[in-house]
Structure formats: structure tokens, C-alpha cells
Design goal:
316 residues; alpha/beta; eleven-stranded mixed sheet; four-stranded mixed sheet; 9 helices
Length: 316
Amino acid sequence: MSKKILTVTLNPAVDFTVEIPGFSPGNVNRVSSSRKDPGGKGINVATALSSGNISVDVTGFLGKDNSDIFKKHFSDNSISDYFIYVSGSTREGIKIVDTSCAETTDINFNGFNLNREDINLFLKNFEETIHEYDYVVLSGSLPLNTSEHIYRDLSLIAKNHGVFVIVDTSRNALLECINSGAVSLIKPNIDELIEIYPNLNDMRDNEFVFDKFILSLLDKVEMVALSLGEKGSKLYTSKGIFYGNAPKIDVKSTVGAGDTFLAGFIAGLYFDYEPEKVLATAISWAASKLTKYGPGLSKTMPPQGFEDRIIVRKTI
């Protein structure tokens, strides 16, 4: 029997990506090309999993007024849609890609206003169906009028049903999830960790002390997948610390790369790989995404093409 995966995106977005070579703030800039894609961290994870031939369900909230782009995307990518459609429009996020230096500037709008009935319906559906899943991904920012405790509460519900809980968020929502003891995997970057553990800033240049602190988090979570950007990635588990390099890539867009990294990590868990291969899979999936615009894996440069350039070693 195949394993079931659910991604939760409470505050999705339509990603409006514009390419501006030599982007200069405060000046007139000319767009060389543009595109719109359905976005949001959980949706990006689901798109990558689907393009990797792994079935996935999605849920959360979407605005009725501009839902067509999402419905078409789910249909085109064979993603099972369990979103709750609410009044208003899903927010747009503008991604300014400077192709001359491969830098992306994000401009994120606030999402729709949810009412209590919308939230209660989502919680009811989640509680009634979560037992059907093996993995749940809770990721992204929170919409207006939503309790900052919601990811923690969802984690506890899922954990009580034996579900492997994955969280990719930030600030107090992340801290509460960690402290709940209900989360199996978190995927922060260094800045997100320092934001909730300020004393880490004094440790970031001392790898031994820094690693020791992250290992202490394993008393509360099972695994920590730490993104180091161009410096690679680390995976902290009860089996040790694993480091993987980031292969050199001609980057087209970084939008959704972290989500695709997480999708690759989930794929590794899905196929019961050992930690080294789980991390290598995550890195290769992210590398494939970096070579293309829009969500999902590249067909012309798939993850398999990067595997011989990725070396994962156990450091402790």
C-alpha cells in the first residue's frame, strides 16, 4: 500500500515573476519577461512531488475570485485538491528576478481575511481525515485572522494519529511547533533559527558549538534539515550529522527552491532511504528546480543529472 502525503498551505499566493536584468531600486526598470504561477510553500512542495511521480493531496484556503489558475494547475499536475474556497482573492506575490546576478527580490502581499466559519470548517476536515495520511507538511505564513498557534495545534492532532509531521515556517509559529514535541522534521535556514534562538548568532562561526545546539533540539523534534544556501545543507538526526555540498548551477530562479528541497527530502523518506541518500535526494531536487522558472522539477535537467556532483558525508 502506497504512503499518503498531505500538504497544508493556509496562505497561498499567485507568484508573479518578472525578469529585470540589472534591476535598480528607485529607478525605471524594464521587464524582459514575466509569468504567473500558483504558489505557496505547500503547493510548491506538492508540485515537486507530483513531478517526481509521487501522489500528493493539498489543502488550505484559496480565494474564489482568482481560483482558476490553481484549479488548472492541480488538474494539469494530477494533484488532489481539498482546499476550502473562501470569499475574495488569493494574494499575489511579486518576484523580481535580476538575471544579471541571479538575485530575486520578493514583494509579498497580505492574504484574504478568513472568518471563523472558514477556519472551523478547515479544522473539522483536518481532524476527520488526517488519520488517512502518513506524512503531513505544514508550511508557509499564516493568513490574517488566523491564530498563531494553528500549526502547533495541527501538529498535535496529526501526531496523535501517528502521522509524520513536517513543519516549514518561521518566528513564533515555528518555535511553538518545536516546543510542542509533536513535530518530526523542521526545515529552517540559519536566519530563521537565529530569529527564534538569538543566542545562536554568537555561535554561527563556531561549527562545533552551533552543531551541539542544533543537536539539543532533537530532544523535541526527530530531524532538523538545515539549509545553508550555496554552502550546502545539513541533516541532524539521532544517527548523526550529515553534510551535503551544493552543486554549481546556472541558476534561473530561486523561487520555490527550498520547497523543492523539502519535497526531495520527503521523497527520500517515502522510499525509506538512509539519511545520506535522503539528503542527497533533497539537494538534487532543489538543484533541478534552480535551473527552471516556475514550480516543480526540470524535465531537461532532472535531479538524476546532479547526483554524481553531490557528496554527502557524516560529520559526527
